[in-house]
Amino acid sequence: MLKIAIVVLMVALVASLGSGFYFLMADQGNRHKRRLFHSLGVRLGLAVSLAAVIVYGVATGQLGHRNPWDAGPRPAAASQDEKGD
After folding, report:
1. Where are the transmembrane segments (predicted)?
2. Structural domains counted in the chain
3. Taking CA 67 as the corner, what is the angle to CA 60 and CA 55, rounded to the nearest 5 degrees?
C-alpha cells in the first residue's frame, strides 16, 4: 500500500510539473495571473509529502533494501568453514 502511495505522489508531481510548464508558457508577460506560483506551491507540498512517506516507510521497515550482496555470507557456508572440512 505504501509503494502505491509513493507512485501516486510521483505521478502527481510530474503532472504538477507539466501544468507549471503550461502556465509558464500560457501566462507569459501577464503579471496578474498567479497560476504558476500556485502550481509551484502544490508541487512543493507534494514533494514534502512524498519525502515524509518515504521516511515513514524506511522508519517502520516497510521500505528497505533486499539486495543479495547486502545479506552477508550464507549460514551454510559459514558452518562448513567452522568444521574445518
Report:
1. 6-24, 36-59
2. 1
3. 25
Q: Is residue 17 part of a domain?
A: yes
Whether residue 68 has pLDDT greater than 60: yes
CA distance 17 to 28: 17
Kindly state whether residue 84 falls inside one of the protein's structural domains: no
Q: Which residues contact 35 (CB under 8 A, 6 or more apart)?
A: 23, 27
Give the closest residue to 24 by CA, choosing from 40, 44, 2, 9. 40
pTM: 0.70
Domain contains 7: yes
Using the structure block, give the residue that is written with the C-alpha cell 507539466. Answer: 18
Query: Which cell numbers in the block locate residue 13?
Result: 508531481
Q: Position of cell 515513514? A: 56
Render pLDDT for 38-64 as a digit per residue (tens, 0 to 9).
999 999 999 999 999 999 998 988 888
